[in-house]
Each structure stands twice: as structure tokens, then as C-alpha cells.
Amino acid sequence: MGELHRTRALYAVIPAGGSGTRLWPASRKGQPKFLLPLPGPRSMLQATVDRLSPLMPYSNIYVVTGSPHAVAVARQLPELPEGNILVEPAPRGTGPAIGLGAALIARRDPHAVMGSFAADHHVTEPERFRAAVLAAVRAAEQGSLVTIGIKPTYPETGYGYIRCGRPLLEHDGFVIHEVEEFKEKPDRATAESYLGSGRYLWNASMFVWRASTLLEEMRRLLPEVYQTLETIAAIWGEPGYEEKLAELWPQLPEVTIDNGIMERSDRVAVVPADFGWTDLGDWHSLGELLGASEGANIAVGCPVIAEDTESTLVYGRGRTVVTLGVKNLVIVDTEDVVLVCDRSRAQDVRRIVRRLEEEGKLLLI
Amino acid sequence: MGELHRTRALYAVIPAGGSGTRLWPASRKGQPKFLLPLPGPRSMLQATVDRLSPLMPYSNIYVVTGSPHAVAVARQLPELPEGNILVEPAPRGTGPAIGLGAALIARRDPHAVMGSFAADHHVTEPERFRAAVLAAVRAAEQGSLVTIGIKPTYPETGYGYIRCGRPLLEHDGFVIHEVEEFKEKPDRATAESYLGSGRYLWNASMFVWRASTLLEEMRRLLPEVYQTLETIAAIWGEPGYEEKLAELWPQLPEVTIDNGIMERSDRVAVVPADFGWTDLGDWHSLGELLGASEGANIAVGCPVIAEDTESTLVYGRGRTVVTLGVKNLVIVDTEDVVLVCDRSRAQDVRRIVRRLEEEGKLLLI
After folding, report:
1. What is the ipTM of this complex?
2. Chain A contacts of B21, Cβ < 8 Å?
3. DSSP per-residue letters across A88-116
4. Which of B277, B278, B280 is nearest to B346 (CA)?
5. Are A341 and B324 a contacting pair at CB < 8 A?
6. Which of helix, strand or coil describes residue A351?
7. DSSP helix/strand/coil, A348
8. Which of the following CATH numbers is that of domain B2-278: 1.20.120.1200, 3.90.550.10, 3.40.30.10, 1.25.40.10?
9. What is the pLDDT of residues A48-65, one digit of tens each?
10. From B320, B325, B352, residue closest to A324, measured CB to CB
11. pTM surpassing 0.95?
């Protein structure tokens, strides 16, 4: 019954920004990763909401997105009340986005505990995820800024890491620790030593706190951002607030919640957890997620006819894709671009996007 | 001046049939190889007409095609008089198609010398080709059924071969020989022995003869076909001929000019020649034709962005194709199908087409 009480009081803010250039050409500036059905059938944003919805009513879930995506977000999430889709006039990073959510939630419910979760991560075991969130809620109620850290399974160099300190409390099998330090993306050797030590977790940018705790830390660590967000929140939804938002928002500094708050606060705790998390950052990782068995081919979104084909991932939009005598490929078929890429080079797709940008081929990105 | 005289009297028949399944998915039943811009910019049929047009006026060039392609052929060849595009109610092979052309030409000009040339072969050196045709004309004027044979450059197993006999005459540097025998597609060892002997030529299905000579041989060797074609030719273009054509044509046996006439006649001569001929039978051979240098990539019909890519051929329709970290691929992008194939497997594309046919996916073929 304690769980149920908490469940009712929980809120969430989902910052939905970023385009995910390594998933180009499926992801574009106008069609970012979180709007895509990866791995499908629901979009990553929809799946994020689905994952949270057993913990709280839809009316407690807020999405903060940029104006170019407001319409798509509204269409993808008809369950959310109109007022829960907050539209930034310009992207300013997760700091202002999550901060605005916290300021609005705190006005609605001064005792609210809220979480913040990326719109474009994948979770294989949503029940384990929710159990971890509820453990984080327990620590958040005691005044911590809580992050959920993922137990690493291999020495990934593409994620940031969190070093665990002493244990603070235990809940439902989760042991919550102090955070000693946040670490940037490591090199391979460092990542291996992190993995070997057993003290490091992947930073998955999942946070749980009382809205009031975050706002206190924001007032202390980012006072100007705090002041501006309070001003905006005070008039939110009232006549003239759009003009005010358009005037004040662009003046905010660009800052992430990680850099601006978590790495500088001494009230940070972490829940080590393990629920099949991946940021699904590139085509190879989508292949890994979906690959049932060694050598199997994977088709998402289109019919595939594969002859003498191995370990190939095809992501399409309905057109038939035929492969013959190939292996370890990623094939992405979109309306205006076809990508054929060796799976081992999936990380380099962003180089292509950068090159297109430099060459002024902006219609393609 | 002798050349010019002949030039005026020359005629040509281009049988335009067959779909070229190894060039799928660019070639389809509804869009056969001869209608495609391979290697472009003109279609193979247009290039065939272009290649012949310095030898004769357009009004002397006939195309025999199936009813499904009549409109496309008419649009691609606005230079040809309407009456020069002969439409078969049903495909019956090159025998009836070329025979009909000969019967109509003979009625127009009893002394006509005519050539017949496939609509979907490629020639790199058209002037050398025309010189070979004129040499063949010289032999044809002496009553031979003349074929132009290609000097083989490697032991190809996908072509038929012609064994040369004693020399008959020489013209403009070409030595015209009797034909001893036509050979079916050989195995590798046989092809190598053919190449080593220096006596064999590739059969490129190029023929030159007096229309009257062909008709005489046809009356002797394929009397029923001859009779039917004469009946059809006698009423060609007159009221009621379409009904007669629709009635008689389907009764014709399916027979090629090679099997029905050339391999059985004793009046056959061959002009050994060398003008960069290829039947452009599969994607790999298109790559060979266009590949400027070892390892180079080739793009036909679409913008290609190639990063760390080698020996890859892309044939598209305007959509951008991006490759990263791949080599030796053929990528064909069409409206409804994308093919990604290892170049060494280009011959097996027809297996895919057969499989689609068996599976009833007829919209794709």
C-alpha cells in the first residue's frame, strides 16, 4: 500500500530533444530518434511514456520538446493533457527543460516527487525499471538527488560513468549508494578498469528527486537559470506568457542537468540497477538488441528477401529490400536516402551527417 | 562512294523483347532492359538506333516489340515513322520477329540488304561496329547469311560461340569466313580451349543478309513460319490486318533465328570483329563496363556519397545513396525495391526473380 501512495504522488518530465545523428538517415533534424519506432511498433517516446504509465496517471507526465517537434509529439501522445506538452522556443539543454518541468510540478504539488527520463532510450525489462524507480523514490523522499545507474556489462566507451560511494539505504532489494564522482566517457583501458572494479555504473541520465529539492539545488548552483524559470513558471498558461517565454527562454544559458547540477551537488545518490537498458545509439546496437541469434538477419518496417545473407539489419519504410551474398550490413531505406553501411562502422554514420552538413546538403539531414 | 550507295539501301530490324532478369530490379517485365538507360543517358534501345542511324535513314529502321512495350518504344523513338514499330500480339522469339521485318522490307525493296541487332547490347566503339556491318553487307550481297562474331577476350561461359571455317573474302580489313559450327554456351574448360584455338568467336546475335536470302532460307527451313509471315505481310497496314495478325501470330511456333535458321543453313558466313561489345547481362558487367580503375565506385542515375567504399556500383533513380565501409557491392534503388548484392553474385539475381515468381510476388518482377 505504501507503493500505491507514492505512485499517486509521482510525476515525470521527459526531455525530448536531440536528433540522434548516428541513426541517420532514419533520424533527421525534423524526425528525431525519439519519434521513431525503434525497435517498434511504438516510437521511443511513446515507449518511454508506456513504461512510466503504470507508476502515475498520464496527467502527471510532462514532455518538454522543441517547437519543431511539438505537433508530432502531440499526435504521438494523445493520452497526455495539452498542458503537459511544454514547448521550448529554443533548445537550451536538459537543465532548463527539466528545471521548467520541476518548477511547474512544484507549483501544482509542493511535495511532488518526480523523475526525469530520456525520451530515446530502450528498456527491455520495464517492470525491473519501475522497481528501480520506486527504490529511487525512497531515497528522493529523504532529500537526495537520485540517479539510476546501470550495472555495466562490457567496457563501453560511449557512455559516462558514475562511481559509487558508501551505501545509504536499501529498498526492495536495491542498495542505494552515495555518488562519489561522475566520469566522462572513458578510453578503452579506463572503461575496462571501471568494469573490473565493480564500483562504476553507466550514467543513463535517469533522475528522481523531489521537485523542491531540485529547485533548491538549482537556486544554489544555477541561480540565474532558477530565477528565469521561476519567472516563467509564475505566469505559465496565463495571458501574455508566450511573449514572456519567447523573450526570456533564449537568454537562458545552454546547460545539461548533469553538468549544471548533478556533478556539482553533494546530495547525489545512485540506485544501481539492471533492466536491459540501452541508449540505442546506433544501428549496430539496434541490431544487437533485436538479434535473436548469431548470424540472424533483422528486418524492421519492411519486407526483406534475404538470400545467402548473414547478420544484416534492414530498417525500412515499406519498400521491399532484397539482399544477396552479403553479411554484416546495415541497410536503411528512407524516402530520400538509402544507407548501406558495414555494421562495424555504425558509429561513423555521424561522420556522414557532419560531412553533409559541411557540404551544405541540409535537406538530407 | 560504294559505301554511300550501300548505306542508302540498308535496312535494320531490331527485335526488342526479353526482360533481362539479371538486371532486376531495374529491369522488370513492364520495364525491360532495352528500355533502361544502361549505362545511360540514352536507353539501350535508343543507343542501338543511334548506333545504326549513320548507316541508314530512320525510316529504314524497324523495331519489333511486344504489345506491353509498344507505347514506351514509341515514346523513346520519336524519330521512327509510326509504321516502323511492329507490335507482336504475343512473343514468339526472334525467328518470327525478324522474319516479319524481312517480309515487310522485301515488299518495300526487293533488293534490300538488312541487318538485325539486339536491342539490349552495348557497343563501346560504334564506328568500328559500323565498319563491321559494312563488311558484312559485302558478304550479304553475295548471298550469304552473315553474322558478326565477336573476338573473345576471356573464356566467357555465358555466351554461345561460332567456329570459323575458311576465309571467303576480305573487305576494309575484315576477313569474312564460312561458319563451320554454332556452339552452345560451353563449360569453363571448353571455353578456354575455344579461346586458345583462336578459331572461335562469341555469338552476338547480329545478322546481315538480303531480306530475300533470309526469306528463301525461311521458306526452306521453317516453311510454316514463312507461309504465315507472308500472309501477314501481304495485308500489313490494310483494313482488317490487326484481326488477321491477332489470329495468325499466336499460332506461330516459338523459335529463335539462331536455332531455326542460322544453325541449320549452309549459307552462313561470319565477320570476326572487335568493337567493345558486351551484352551487359548483369550488374557486374555494367560495373566492368563503367569501372574506370581498380577499386573505383560507380554511380548511375543518383547522387552517391561513398565513405570508405570500394568497387561498388550504385544504380538509382534520384534518391541519394550513401555507403560506408563496404566494398564489391551492387546497390540498385528503384521505386519499390532496393537490392544490395555482392558483385560476385550478380549472376544469381535471376534466382531471386525466380523465387519471387514462385512465391507469387508478381508485383515485384
Report:
1. 0.82
2. none
3. ESS---HHHHHHHHHHHHHHH-TT-EEEE
4. B280
5. yes
6. helix
7. helix
8. 3.90.550.10
9. 999 999 999 999 999 999
10. B352
11. no
